[in-house]
Amino acid sequence: MNLEFLETPLASIDAEVTIVFLTETLLEETADETLLTQAGFKAKQDQLSLLHEKRVLYCGVEKLNADSLRSAAATAVRSLKDSNYKSAKVGQYFLKNTQALVEGFVLGYYSFDLYKSKHEASPFTELFMSAENVDGSMLDAQEVKTVVDTSKTVAEAANYVRTLVNTIPNDMTPSSLAAMAQELATQNSLTCTILDEHALETEGMHAMLAVGRASVHKPRLIHVSYKPKNPLHVISLVGKGLTYDSGGLSLKSPTSMVSMKMDKAGACAVLGILKAVSELKLPLEVHGFIGAAENMVAGNAYKPDDVLTAKNGTTIEVRNTDAEGRLVLADVLAYAQQEVQADYLFDYATLTGACMVALGPYTVGMMGHSHALKHQFSKIAASSGELLASLPFNAHLKKLLKSEIADISNVGSKPYGGAITAGMFLDRFIDDEMKQKWMHFDIAGPAYSESSWDCHPYGATGVGVRFSIAWMRSLLNAQ
Ligand code: BES
Ligand code: ZN
Ligand code: ZN
Fold it and tell me: 474 C-alpha to center of ligand 2: Å?
């Protein structure tokens, strides 16, 4: 879909349908109130009513705020995608909501049909956005255009992440993920270095190598970077890239194995963030480090009872091969800190089912030692359309990671607080001088869903891109 911003009033734009968002109050003021009421339209959130003769698609919103409009925009665009209309137009609902509207349209239009034998292209391909505001005034065209362009870039980066994550494990192996990173690097003038299994051996990354050993698709470490001239900050992003997580010898149950192609969502989010940062030309040096591996079963698989030596020399007792993400991240976090002296270090991982138990499936769990960073991300969560909540470090839980035979165990000895013990495991691989600069994002809940919600369809959501870019932009605005 081509979303195009036009400075002109709505009436002067040539399109087949006009999208109009209505609150209950706005419904009472509209000339079509009688017709809409007859049709049973009450302006409830996401309720649609198409007045075909008038060529207007009305969509209900609870309030004229970002969350309501994002969801309604997605609902409206989905219904147009299924129609025979080719084009639509829409106005503004105050500048503060423009970002959410654009996100709703771009994210709502997305669908993943790579594996459908019949591709039915939708006739609906043109959406025009006018600078005309809901109150009849004209908003500053330059201001609106800037927001539209930025929001479109960010939402398209999230769609890019969705497609990478949705791609099946046979098609998206560690080396194909590396090829995708290479392709992004070529298109967006980034640098890209790939470490194969031999290079990983040389680097002493035995934890990551053990996780990937039973797979025919060997692990890769992917380092992609965006280095503009005179960057204001240096940021390292680390992503968990399990192209498939069967659980290994601690095999997952058949039902919990389904959808584990999404265990690469952290890695894909890192690529999506780099795509957006480079297209927005943010004055930030951003490094993405991805640990790509497949956790499988074979005669040479790593086992519960093994002891692995990670890159930083820490020995890890394996008690559960399904807690593999933290093993991969242990090595990649150590590598990232060795390679780049960053001002910030963030990791993104579909790390624990426990995070979903703690926060529900829609919220990212974040952990970090810096109260300032956690506060900044909490504030961002309120406006970025992505939900984040803080999980606390806890000295009592830390004891659960004690190993009798190695420096640390890869799982807690008791089942509760699993998202926190996983975060505390990662903490062991963060150098002292980086502690205050590090944030861990457990995206296991919102990365993937088998039912549509908000502006997300079935499957991957692309979580991570929007809140990270929002934080980076707020960092630059605070200069
Ligand atoms: N990839 C999973 C976490 C996960 C579970 C992501 C469900 C998305 C949905 C991770 O590797 C895992 O298996 N974690 C275990 C840890 C346990 C063995 C301590 C889990 O959460 O059960
Ligand atoms: Zn696992
Ligand atoms: Zn996993």
Answer: 34
Summarize pLDDT for 34-83 with one digit per residue, the tens: 999 999 999 999 999 999 999 999 999 999 999 999 999 999 999 999 99
Q: Which two tokens stand for residue 193?
A: 């270095």
Query: At 120, is the pLDDT very low, low, confident or very high (cuts 50, 70, 90)?
Result: confident
Q: Which ligand is nearest to the CA of 445?
A: 1
Give the bridge partners for 108, in sequence order.
none
Phi-psi region of 110 (alpha: psi -120 to 50; beta: other; left: phi over 0): beta
Range with the lowest mean pLDDT among 117-126, 284-293, 369-378?
A: 117-126
Q: What are the pLDDT digits (tens) for 355-373? A: 999 999 999 999 999 999 9
Q: Which amino acid makes up residue 451? A: S
* CB atoms inside a 10 Å sphere around CB 133: 16
- Residue 439 bridge partners (DSSP): 346, 368
Helices 465-477 + 265-280 axis angle, to 10: 40
Q: What domains can be seen in the chain, in order of their start residue?
A: 2-135 (3.40.220.10), 167-477 (3.40.630.10)
| Tokens matching residue 64 | 């004229």
Please list all protein residues whose beta carbon sits less than 5 angstroms from ligand 2, which is an ion.
Answer: 245, 322, 324
Ligand 1: nearest atom to the Cα of 448: 8
Active site positions, annotated = 252, 326
Best residue among 211, 352, 363 to mutate for probing ligand 1, ranked by most atoms within 8 Å of CB: 352
Residue 355 CA, ligand 1 centroid: distance in Å: 9
Which atom from ligand 1 is nearest to the alpha carbon of 295?
11
Alpha-carbon dihedral sign for residues 51, 52, 53, 58 = positive
**Ligand closest to the CA atom of residue 352:** 1
Pair 358, 391: CB distance under 8 Å: yes
Q: Is 411 in the pocket of ligand 1 (CB under 6 A)?
A: yes
Cβ within 8 Å of residue 210, ≥6 positions away: 302, 306, 308, 318, 327
Using the predicted structure, report yes or no on whether residue 479 has a pLDDT greater than 80. Answer: no
Give the integer Cα–Cα distance in Å for 83 and 69: 21
Instruction: For ligand 1, say whether the CB of 350 is within 6 Å of any of its atoms.
Output: yes
- The Cα 108–Cα 404 span in angstroms is 51
Give the tokens for residue 36: 């809409």
Q: What six digits make up the tokens of 111?
A: 């669908």
Q: What pLDDT sits at residue 168?
A: 98
Does 304 sit in the ligand 1 pocket, CB within 6 Å? no
Q: Which residue's alpha carbon is nearest to atom 17 within ligand 1?
A: 323
For range 25-37, the mean pLDDT: 97
